[in-house]
Each structure stands twice: as C-alpha cells, then as structure tokens.
Amino acid sequence: MGKLQGKTAYITGSGRGIGRAVALKLASEGANIVINDLDQEPAEEVVSLIKSNGGDAVAVVGSVTEEGFAARFINTGVETFGGIDIIVNNAGYTWDAMIGKMSDEQFDTMMNVHVKAPFQILRAASEFIRIESKKEAEAGKEIFRKVVNISSVAGTGGNAGQANYSSAKSGIIGLTKALSKEWGRNKVNVNCVAFGLIATRLTEATDDKKTISVEGNEVAVGIPTKVISGFKAMIPIGRPGTVEEAANGVYLFCIPESNYISGQVLIVGGGLSI
Question: How far apart are CA 170 and CA 157, in angstroms?
Fold first, then answer.
C-alpha cells in the first residue's frame, strides 16, 4: 500500500509538465486523482495512464479562471471519489514584459491565474472540509488534509520582466500563510512549494520566438539560450530540475510525515534561492 492509499488529490494544470508529474507521483502512492487541463486530450491521456497503472482518476477540463470552475472541480471529485484530502494549486503560466510595456490585462491575468483561482478553489472546498473535520474531531480522530500551493523563486526574490508573475507568486505565499492559520484547527496543512528553473516546454532554451495560445492570448514560451546559460550558472547543483524532481517536492507536503508542518515555503531549485 502506498502512503496515500484511498486519498483523493485535486491537481490543477495536471495534463502537462510539472502538474502531470505530480499527478503520476501521487497516483503511484495510491491516491485517486482529479485531473485538470485547459485541453481535453492531455487531461484524458493522464487519466488513461493512471488507470492503466492500476489507479483511478477523473478529468475536469477548463480554465481555472472561468466562472464556476472551482465548484465544478471540487464537486466532480467529491461526487466521484467521496472526499477531499489533497489540493495542489499548480495551474499557471507566465506572460512577461518590462513594466513600461506591460498591460493591465497582463497583470490582471497573472493575478487571476496564480492567486484568485487558488483562492476560489480553496473556498469551494472549505465547507466540505469544515463539516468533515468537525465530524472527525467529535469522533476523536485526527485526520490531516493537505494543501500545496505553487510559487516560484520569482515570488520569493523577484525577476526582471515579471512584475505581474512575481507579484502573483508572492501573493500565493501570503494566501498560504493566512490559510495555514485559519485551517490549522481543521487539521489542514497548508504549505507552498516555490520552484526554481524546472525543465518544461515553458522554460526550454530557444533563440526562436515561440508562442502558445492561452485563452485567446498569444504567450511567449521558452527562454533565450544566453539567459538560460546564466540561470544554469546560478544553480549550485549545476542544472535545471526535472518535472519528476519538482513533483517530489510537492509530494513531501502530501504525506503523513508532514503532518506537523504548515505555513512553510519550500524552494525546490537545486540550491538556487534568489
């Protein structure tokens, strides 16, 4: 039996990249997974992979920022698996510009994706958690639930060209710390993982201009080769992290060994802690 046997984990942005790796890691330890992605195909692919490996999962497709998403996400998991044990607020992307050229839309979009959407998801889960934790306390049981919010070293130390993203990733740390105090009595551990340079499609080294379409906006992806070289030189371990290594950092906050850890920020960056 895995350490998460019978638990239900909700992971946003889990059709690709880090979120996908988190989903596969938690599923390998026995958790039922509620998958989310903007697109049907990658979400269903992860569901199929988990099921083929003997686990169980369900997909909730759509943007975390769309009206009604939070309730739909949480309700689907409760109706399918019956519980809420782990919530990983992972969905997100960057939309960079120097501040003089950054639009209000760019700033607001990053705040909505990285702060408001996690807030709405946690709010949607709050009544279930309140009721269940009260029942458990009355029965003399101490059952811990886990929230892992995803930040970045851009949120802990800032990054040029990312006033919007850095502000949002700093904001999710504030939400983490506030909720760790608010939900402590409900036996919910609320922690944050801040990633350094992790190798994904969003951070690949490239000197070509590449974009992806996110909700109608063309967003640049990839980092210039010269810039990537500079980042790598700053990492004590000497290389970017893999998505599996990123997922392992999240996993640490999901297992019983972290039951007395809450309100903390763990930097998963190979020693990089700007």
Answer: 9
